[in-house]
Every structure is written in C-alpha cells, then in structure tokens.
TrEMBL record:
The keyword Protein biosynthesis does not apply. It comes from Alexandrium monilatum. InterPro entries: Oxoglu/Fe-dep_dioxygenase_dom, P4HA-like, Pro_4_hyd_alph, Pro_4_hyd_alph_FE2OG_OXY. The keyword Iron applies. PROSITE patterns: FE2OG_OXY (PS51471). This is Fe2OG dioxygenase domain-containing protein. Residues 269-416 form the Fe2OG dioxygenase domain.
Length: 534
C-alpha cells in the first residue's frame, strides 16, 4: 500500500491536520486504488455502520448532493468527499474539517453547509440530513463522532450510494431480523436489484387480492402538450391495473413495511401498490415516475400537489411477481448517459441537450439497461439526484410481453415527503421561473379556482378523506373524520375526493364552486348539499 501511494499523489491532502494524519488518510485512499489496479478484490458488502469505511463508498462517478464524511483516526479531524467521489477521479483533494469545536448539531450543520457549499433550501423544500452507513439518521454530534463514515444527503432522505456496478449493500432488518442485499445494476440512473424480497406465497396472495379488487385499464394524468394533441391513454400503456392499500389484506401491509425497511424512508411516504398485469404483447412506453413541471406549465393543481417540485416520488420499488421467459423486461432507456448541468443546484437541462446525450425512441426495447422479470425480485431506483433535482436518466419502460406469457408486477412509490403533506400556492416561488409557469398569478382570496369543501360523516364508523392526486394518479389521505363529525378544507375546482371507511369506499365527488358540503350517509354514499356529484 505504501509503494502504491507513489502512483496517486493527488490523494495526499496538502493542508489541514499534521503530516502524520495526512499520510494516514492518504494511505486509506491509496489502499482502495491499489486493490483495484492490482486486481485484488475490493470489499463490496458492508454489514454495519460501525465497521464501515469511507473507502468502501467512494466512487469514480459523482453523485451530486451525496457527500461522504470520513473520520481520520480517532481524533476530531474529518475528510469531506464531495459528491462521494474518489479524489483522483474528482481531480480535487478532499476537504479537511476540524470537528473539535462542534458542541451541537447546529454548529456542525453550519460548518458542513459552508464547507460543502450546500445551498439554502427553497420554500417547501426538505432540509438536508446526516446518515450512517445503514441509512439511520445522525441527530447528535456525539453519534457523528463515533462513526468511521457518515453521509450528507441534500435531499433530506436516505439514498443508498450506488458506488459502482456490482457493489452490494447488506441492509439490516428488512424482512424482520433478516437482511436484504442491494446489488448495484446502474449508476446513471441509480438502480439496485434485491432478490428474494417477496416469497412465492406472498406473490400469489398479492395477485389474488388484485383479482378480488378487479383490474381495469390504467389512465394517468396527461401533460398539457398531450391534452392539446388529443393523446389517447391507450397509446401510452396497454395493461390492466388495481390500486391495493394496506387495509385490503395483511400481506399488503407487511410488504409496505418491508419496503420502508429497505428504503429507510418512513412508510407514511409510501403510496398504495399499483398492481399491473400485462398480457401477451402488452407494454408501457417510456416515462418518468417523477413530475417534470415544465410539461404542466398551466396546471396549477400539479404544481401545488408536488410542492413546486419538492414533494414527489423519490424512489420506485418495482415488484416482479411472476417469471416471464420472453419479453416483459424493465428497460432504462437513458442508461449511462451524462448527468446534465451537474453543478446547478436546482433545475438542469433535458438529457438530449447535454453533450453526449440522446433522446431515445420510447417505443422500442433495443437500447438501454434491460432487467428481465424474476419472481420475488424487486428493483429499487431513484427518480431524483441526492441534491433534489429530478433524474432525467430515470426514463424507463416495460417491454412487450412474449407469446403465451402474462406478467404481474407492482409499483411501490416512495415519496420525498409524507403523502398527507399539504402546500399552498406561492406566487414568487423560484420554481415558477425555473420551470416556466405560464398560468399567471392566481393566489389570494380572489382566486376563482378556490373551493371550500365540507364533509359530514353520518355513517357509523370513522372515515378517511381521500384526495385524488393528478401527479401520481392515485388517492392520498388528507385527514380523518370521526363518526358523526365533520371536517372542512380549502381546495380547488375540479379536485376529486372520496371517503374511505374500513368496510367500504364512497362514490367520488368533485369540488365545482366556491363552497360545497357533502354528507356521508349510512349506506356510504356521499350526497351533495351543494355542487355536483361525479
């Protein structure tokens, strides 16, 4: 290792702690590089945060917004690796930090923000957070001082570092006490494979629940451009779907918790499962799982629903419930393409506008990373970069299913924020200029689209008020109303609601004018006091 350091002088810090500590830090980085160049195995499976090493997680690729903190020896000195990149690959030295004066997390955060250049959060944006190597939040400086390696994620939720293709994380406590192994399939976008996540019996049970609910042709929200062009939903996806929430069966709730254990993001951020069935020849064209606001320049409800881009689908956990011998692959159409405008803290260009980028044919399954269906396996991919920017390389599709086969799968989307988090319109939000809002200023009490809606519950059981989210094409819980109680909320015209009780769901209603009231009757029907019923 000492001899190999002659080959990587860029790893040697030129300022900071005493020379002895500088050399110790450099040797650690050199050991990693020497193992790779000499062909020796590099540790890929990390079992616990206490035994982790920064060298395990540094990558030749940059991951904007994900920074690795390395403790040097047993002292207070730290090395900060911006974007999780190896010094030689980054072309810069790690940043030295002295943690000896950090008496509180506020002081630590202030220094880290300055040293790493973390921008101030925008309105409605989640603050950045610190984590250990197992994705647990680091909330005090004493804990931070104990860790050999820690991570800053600017987006504010844990994101497993991809490191390199073939790298493996062992995530503790995913299936009860049992761990799960996340194996990196791709760096751009970040995609992991987790085998044996779902048992055969669980897969069969999930499909049975879906059959019991009934599967229907799926329809998503269309962009403003698609509406203008009269795009048909049938041109976008040919499959059947059902939405499965936790109350339908214990297996759905069990897998919901297992997904939260895997992602290290609370289950309150999870959407209901979107169960999908593809028959022979059926497919899903290329699409994103996150909302590109520039495609909705005048659809205010989409902007408010996504908190101006800060409440969206952080991750997709995609379930394979059946084997398919021919076709049915999940394909990532922009696999390996450059990250556009990486240094921009927000926004960014379309991939095809970058040097080396291309705009793929979304109807073909010829180029890109293809992952065939394998029963019980799930894919985890991130729809956002760790700095909070949507990842345009996360464009993906489902290839046509081969002859005489049926593919069952499921989408479990994990949000940046809890599903029930609410927001209001902000006229001067930075995203308005960044993403090209064209709908004009419509906030304040004179907003013609505002609609106050009241629900009175005359049923014998409590009910959840569910609001239909255009950006996710699913219902989200807003609040609860007790039996005999009532609740009021401010909404907007054309917003759709249902009331869900443990035993039944009501009909759907829409808010159509300034003030409306609905009563949930004993037969679980919403009756209008004012307005119109869907």
């Amino acid at each position: 290792c000492s001899s190999s350091c002659e080959r990587c002088p860029s790893a040697m810090p030129s300022s900071g702690p005493p020379a002895g500590r500088r050399r110790a830090a450099a040797l650690a980085a050199c050991a990693w590089l020497w193992a790779r160049t000499a062909g020796s195995p590099v540790p890929g499976v990390v079992d616990a945060a206490a035994t982790a090493s920064a060298a395990d997680y540094l990558s030749e690729e940059a991951f904007p917004g994900l920074h690795v903190i390395e403790r040097v020896g047993e002292g207070p000195e730290l090395l900060l690796h911006r974007a999780g990149q190896l010094p030689a690959a980054a072309g810069r030295e790690p940043i030295w930090a002295d943690a000896s004066h950090w008496g509180s997390m506020a002081e630590a955060r202030r220094d880290l923000e300055e040293l790493l250049g973390i921008p101030a959060p925008e309105p409605l944006q989640t603050e950045w957070a610190l984590f250990d190597a197992q994705g647990r939040r680091v909330l005090d400086v004493a804990r931070l001082g104990e860790l050999p390696v820690a991570f800053v994620v600017e987006l504010g939720q844990w994101m497993w570092p991809a490191v390199r293709v073939g790298f493996e994380h062992t995530a503790a406590g995913v299936k009860g006490e049992a761990p799960a192994v996340l194996r990196t399939l791709s760096l751009r976008p970040v995609v992991f494979e987790v085998r044996d996540f779902i048992t055969e019996a669980e897969a069969e049970e999930v499909m049975d629940v879906g059959r019991g609910q009934g599967l229907h042709s799926s329809e998503g929200v269309l962009t403003t451009e698609a509406i203008a062009q009269r795009t048909r939903h049938s041109e976008f996806r040919t499959s059947k779907q059902a939405w499965l929430d936790n109350g339908l069966a214990p297996v759905i709730k069990e897998l919901d918790g297992r997904v939260a254990n895997l992602t290290r993001v609370p289950a309150s951020h999870n959407e209901p499962v979107q169960l999908l069935r593809y028959e022979e020849g059926e497919y899903y064209h290329g699409h994103m799982d996150w909302t590109e606001l520039e495609f909705y320049p005048d659809q205010r409800e989409v902007w408010v629903d996504t908190h101006f881009g800060h409440k969206d689908r952080l991750a997709t956990v995609f379930w394979y419930l059946t084997d398919v011998a021919e076709g049915g692959e999940t394909i990532f159409l922009k696999h390996g393409q450059p990250i556009c405008d990486m240094e921009s803290p927000r926004g960014g260009k379309h991939t095809q506008e970058c040097e080396g980028g291309r705009d793929p044919d979304m109807t073909l399954c010829e180029k890109g990373l293809k992952v065939p269906p394998r029963r019980g396996t799930v894919l985890l991919w991130y729809n956002f970069h760790p700095n909070g920017r949507g990842d345009r390389n996360a464009l993906h599709a489902s290839c046509p299913v081969g002859s005489n086969f049926t593919k069952w799968s499921g989408n479990k989307w994990v949000g940046i924020k809890p599903r029930g988090a609410q927001a209001e319109w902000i006229d001067d939000h930075p995203a308005i200029q960044r993403h090209g809002w064209t709908g004009g200023s419509r906030s304040g009490p004179e907003d013609p689209d505002e609609c106050d809606i009241t629900f009175m519950n005359d049923a014998a059981e409590a009910a959840d008020v569910m609001w239909y989210s255009p950006s996710t094409s699913s219902f989200q819980k807003i609040r609860s109303v007790s039996a005999g109680g009532s609740t009021s909320l401010q909404s907007y015209r054309r917003h759709t609601f249902q009331l869900w009780t443990p035993s039944r769901r009501s009909n759907k209603v829409t808010c159509q004018r300034g003030s409306m009231e609905f009563v949930l009757t004993s037969d679980h029907r919403l009756r209008r006091q004012a307005g119109a019923e869907l």
